[in-house]
Amino acid sequence: MSAKYEINFTSLLMPEPLPIEKRLTDHRVRFGRSPLNIDTLVAMEEINEALDAFADIADDSRRIVPTLNIGTATLKDDPEAIAARERKRFGVSMDEQRTWRGLDGARRQWRQRIEDRGVFTYMIKLQAPGELSGFSIFKNELAAICINDREPTEGAKIFTLFHEYCHLLLRQNSISDENNSDRVERFCNRFAASFLIPRQPLRDVIDPAIDTPYEFSDGDVKELARQFRVSNRAMAYRLEETGLAPEGFYGRRTGPWDLPVSQPIQSALESQPTYITLRLKRIGRLHATTALRAAKSHVINSFDASQLIGLKPSSFLKLEAVLK
Question: pTM (2 decimals)?
Answer without folding.
Answer: 0.86
